[in-house]
Write a structure and sequence with these properties.
The protein is of the alpha+beta class and 182 residues long. The protein has two domains: 74 residues, Arc Repressor Mutant, subunit A (Orthogonal Bundle); 81 residues, Alpha-Beta Barrel (ADP-ribosylation fold), CATH 3.20.170.30. The protein is built from six helices and nine strands, in the order H-E-H-H-E-E-E-H-E-H-E-H-E-E-E. The strands form three sheets. The protein has a three-stranded antiparallel β-sheet with strand order 1-3-2.
């Protein structure tokens, strides 16, 4: 499958497995899973056709491992705006995690910390490089360091998704380290 088609199918899956399953008549179970056959049929019924082979290629080839397949079911690994309980156990984070953003977002972050916005959790990266790639989706990236070790000691709960994204409900300002000049 060519790159454009791969991206198109991936974006379609993200939209319907993370944000708007009802748009195509899809039902997610409480943990976000749906039957693969039901997904393919619902997409087809709404004018977007893809094969099981294309689906498997998107899941296997996605560098961010956005989707997980378990038997005959599929779900998004994280990033939902619809109510799901991923069932991820609490995890001890490394001393520092990172968050990629852009300069125009720094003022509200300095005032309120990191909030989940329209998602269930704040997404944090295990390294600066990944955070920079995330931030670059919206412009020139600014990478914030998060004192995850101190947060954890202070009782904040962390989870890590199947694709290595660290999740927490919010990051108060006192745990953020802004780069020089920002």
């Amino acid at each position: 499958m060519d790159e454009r088609r791969l991206v198109k199918v991936s974006k379609y899956l993200s939209k319907h497995l993370r944000h708007q399953p009802e748009r195509i008549g899809l039902t997610l179970d409480p943990a976000g899973w749906t039957e693969i056959d039901a997904l393919i049929a619902a997409a087809d019924a709404h004018g977007f056709r893809f094969t099981r082979e294309e689906l498997d290629e998107v899941v296997a080839g996605n560098d961010k491992r956005r989707f997980a397949i378990e038997g005959t079911r599929i779900r998004a690994s994280q990033g939902h705006s619809v109510e799901v309980e991923l069932g991820l156990p609490p995890a001890t984070p490394p001393p520092y995690l990172y968050h990629g953003t852009v300069a125009r977002s720094l003022e509200p972050i300095r005032a309120e910390g990191l909030r989940p916005m329209n998602r269930h959790d704040v997404h944090l990266s295990p390294d600066r490089e990944t955070a920079a790639r995330v931030g670059a989706r919206r412009g020139r990236p600014v990478v914030l360091a998060v004192d995850a070790g101190a947060m954890h000691r202070d009782g904040h709960v962390f989870h890590v998704s199947a694709n290595g994204v660290w999740l927490t409900k919010a990051v108060p300002v006192r745990y953020l380290r802004f780069p020089k000049g920002h």
